[in-house]
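debug: dumping io for the single-chain case to check the tokenizer round-trip. Nothing else runs in this session.
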Amino acid sequence: MTFRFKPAAAAVAVVIGLAAPAADAGLITPAGLSPGDTFTVVFVTSGFTEATSGSIGTYDGFVSSAAAAAGIDTYNGSPVTWSALASTADGTTAAGRLTTTSGIYLVNGTRVATSAADLFDGTIAAPVNVTETGAPIGDVLVWTGSNADGTAAEALGDSDSTFGFSGVTNDAWLNFSDGSNTLNGNFYAFSNPQTVPAAAVPEPASLALAAVGAAGLAAVRWRRQAQ
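debug: decoded output
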């Protein structure tokens, strides 16, 4: 059994370009946060694999590759580190890995928990059923090797390993059942804490371009009035 887990016109263009810059690739800032606030992002991988390795590094590599392919390996121009939310036979535990005291959000900005303690208290505010691309994945089995409190259960790498269920908000999101580690399952991933940046201050070159654009618009208005 397998689980599926013209110059004046140019000046106008300059002004428009400054007013509405293209969006940067990478993680988005969850709504409601202010400069200086920190947050962590979680997702469930769209891809799946076995849980035969007892080394957490195997699964960190798996989730990091998924994040990189989706373009969420940066935030505000800085690298984002992604880790698997799992407990493995090498002694790693999910709760020992994710210890943030700040809010935890899905890739689409939905809040899952207010902190790591809230994440591992048996219930979460929203199911972790959104992938690295921000797309909903629905109900899949997710390898965790963990109990609801983030401690090790049947760890990944054990012949029978614990999996969670992405479609729920009770403790089964981490600990639903267990099965042969040769089955395919998805993985939960979490980012290192990110800090919301202060509002960007225009560089001198940008201010100069804006001044040129404003001057061009003023010249157009003057010519029309003169006519």
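debug: round-trip ok. The first strand starts at residue 38 and ends at 44.
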